[in-house]
Amino acid sequence: MRWKSGTGKKHNHTWEITCELHVFEGMVSFFDIEKSLHRAIDALSGKFLNDLPEFKVVNPTVENVTEYLFNEIDAILRANGAMLMRIEVSDSPTRAYCIDITERTLPTEAEVEAETKSEQKQQEKPDA
Fold first, then answer.
1. Which residues have C-beta within 8 Å of that of residue 28, sequence separation ≥ 6?
2. What is the C-alpha separation between 23 and 33, in angstroms, rounded?
3. For residues 22 and 106, is the Cβ–Cβ distance under 8 A?
4. 3-state DSSP call for residue 96?
5. What are the recorded GO MF terms, alphabetically (predicted)?
6. What topology does CATH give the domain 13-123?
7. Residue 98: what pLDDT?
8. Cα–Cα distance between 98 and 101 in angstroms, integer?
9. 12 Cβ contact partners less than 8 Å away, ≥ 6 residues apart
10. What is the four-CA torsion angle of 51, 57, 61, 64, rounded to 10 degrees?
11. Is the pTM of this model over 0.90?
């Protein structure tokens, strides 16, 4: 953590992450999904979070880590025909943060594909 007076002492956490997902059609191999999710998790695993670009400005609180993981994992799932509905992240037995979108209206697979294509086109545009 960073405060006005400096940075806190380096320390470890054992994170627990629980995800619920929605699959658009049919079934998706859990092994394939789990393998894909490790890309997001491995980016943080065993690292001092304050040193990572994602947390240079934003403190790596359990809330901010959850927001980061939600965005990363949801993007991975959407590329694999699913979407993240709920994530709960805890850094201790008494402290957890949850993002739950299960009450929202689900997009169709076609809407997700259109959004993904639009985002890809935006990324392909050269900077003006």
1. 80, 81, 82
2. 11
3. yes
4. strand
5. 6-carboxytetrahydropterin synthase activity
6. Tetrahydropterin Synthase; Chain A (3.30.479)
7. 96
8. 10
9. none
10. -110
11. no
Report residue 101 as tokens: 């979108």
Among the listed residues 77, 103, 72, 79, the one whose alpha carbon sits nearest the alpha carbon of residue 22: 77
As given in the structure block, the two tokens for residue 49 are: 């979070």
Mean pLDDT of 118-128: 77
Q: What is the residue extent of each domain of the chain?
A: 13-123
Per-residue pLDDT tens digits for 40-79: 899 898 888 888 999 988 999 999 999 999 999 999 888 8
Say what the pLDDT of residue 53 is.
Answer: 92
Which residue, among 88, 13, 82, has the nearest Cα to 46 in the 3D structure?
Answer: 13
- Over range 16-39, report the average pLDDT: 85
More confident residue, 123 or 66: 66
